[in-house]
Amino acid sequence: MENVLAKLQLLNYEAEFCAPAKPPWPLLDGTAFAIPSPANNQNAQFFHFTSLTAWLLSKAGRSFPAPQQFDDPNTTCTNILTECKALGFAAPSFAPTKLKQGFG
To answer: Exposed e or buried b for every residue in 34-61, given b needs 16+ CB within 10 A?
Structure first.
């Protein structure tokens, strides 16, 4: 996660992703998506993950609308993996629904 954070900082995620959100997204730490949310709020953790993913996909030139908090999580997961495949990433060895956890 430390490598991911360093790369996000190079992309200026603090100013371009976190700050513009209302309310602003909290800055990520080394365990942000590695373990379940300490507040036991996996829905919020999943929404943060998918929003960050949408921002990263837009930085990569993909037209991927940011998911809304109450969108179907199965559809969101499938769409994320489809966009990653379109960018040339190999298909993962897990089902799209595994992303619903928001961590791991």
So the answer is: eeebeeeeeeebbbbbbbbbbbbbeeee
